[in-house]
Amino acid sequence: MRIGELVRRTGVSERLLRYYEEQGLLNPSRLPSGYREYTEAHVETVRRIRCLLAAGLSTSTIATVLPCLEARGERLAPTCPDVVGQLRAERDRIDQAMRDLRESRQALDLVISAARV
């Protein structure tokens, strides 16, 4: 399938698909004309990328984790032992970011509550 069909099937723009390719997340074959050619597997790969991005992972992390994930029903499951540790580290990073945001919000609440309105 061509890139337009992949856009239609995944809801991801051509620009993002090309970016995923630049980041090494997608590797379509090329036709003699230079056009990219995608397969059904690419549709699933894009869905996995979107899922991992929504979970807060960077594209560089996704590039290392993606080859070690398989679908198990509706879930992704790691197949490489070291990936679990990497995912835990990412979860810890997100937890810290959430704590930092809570502290920022509390500080902002204090400033707002001091306003004379």
Task: Characterize the structure shown.
With 117 residues, this protein is mostly helical. The chain contains 5 helices and 4 strands. A hairpin with a 5-residue loop joins strand 1 (29-30) and strand 2 (36-37). The chain is elongated, with a radius of gyration of 19 Å. The relative contact order is 0.09.
Reported for the largest beta sheet, the result is: 2 strands, antiparallel
Tally of strands: 4
Q: Helix tally?
A: 5
Encode the helix/strand succession as letters.
HHEEHHEEH
Kindly report the spatial arrangement of strands forming the biggest sheet: 1-2
User: What is the beta-strand fraction?
Assistant: 5-15%
Q: What's the overall average pLDDT, rounded?
A: 93
- pLDDT < 50 stretches: none
Distance between the termini: 60 Å
Residue share in helix: 55-70%
Structural class: mainly alpha
What gyration radius follows from the Cα positions, in whole Å? 19 Å
Q: How would you sum up the global shape?
A: elongated
Tag the structure with descriptive keywords.
single chain, 117 residues, mainly alpha, two-stranded antiparallel sheet, 4 strands
List the topology elements.
Blueprint: H1 3-10, H2 14-22, E1 29-30, E2 36-37, H3 40-54, H4 59-65, E3 69-72, E4 75-78, H5 81-113
Antiparallel strand pairs: 1-2, 3-4
Question: Could you provide a short overview of the structure?
Answer:
This protein is mainly alpha-helical. The chain has helices at 3-10, 14-22, 40-54, 59-65, 81-113, and strands at residues 29-30, 36-37, 69-72, 75-78.
